Amino acid sequence: MLMNPIEYWAMNNPLRSFCQRHYEAPRLKRLSKGRPDRVLEIGCGQGEGARIIYDLFGPQSYVGIDLDPRMIRRARRRAGALPNATFVEGDVSNLEFPDGSFDLVMDFGIVHHVPNWRDALAEVHRTLMAGGEFLFEDLSLETWERGIGVPFKRIADHPYDQMFRQDEFVNELESLGFEVETHESSPLSFYHFWGRAEKLA
Ligand SMILES: C[S@@+](CC[C@H](N)C(=O)[O-])C[C@H]1O[C@@H](n2cnc3c(N)ncnc32)[C@H](O)[C@@H]1O
User: Fold this and answer.
1) Which domain holds residue 150?
2) Is the pLDDT of residue 69 over 90?
3) Number of Cβ within a 10 Å radius of residue 33
């Protein structure tokens, strides 16, 4: 689901990049057990994730996909000359990559935008190789029930009727065949969760 103008603005400014680089990415990196060569970032947004992924993981290749062509154009401009990085318009719930194409899939806050999120997680599982990692940082129904999530719900458009609770997200990953570790936190009363899922052989 595309972002409304308010969230589009919020996702395309230096504060968003700062949080992603200094807060979200380092703790995902700490959870990671792999040295990924082939990385897919779902909902790559403005391209800051690509730069962070090259800095933290140094992959041999990277693909960023996003539903919004404006974000793809912006990511291409911002990511510059990262080696073997490509950005393509696409829907995470229907990926065009063959099975086992990646050894790391990154999710910086995108799956809560996807109405058919179970399909998205199934695609993450399909396109990862056995032993590959899915590192995720996301929001869930809990986010909009408390703290600053309550007023934020009024200004951001999300598929609330189809959204998951954190335990549903984790259960779905486990039923697909992932081993999952999750954490949650509410800094400034903003509930979110993150974790690592390893595709079992
Ligand atoms: C909250 S933004 C996060 C962007 C970026 N990952 C970041 O952390 O700044 C969610 C992104 O997911 C994209 N998106 C939404 N639904 C999608 C889908 N079905 N497939 C791929 N990307 C999607 C949006 O266009 C948007 O760029």
Assistant:
1) 5-18+36-179
2) yes
3) 8
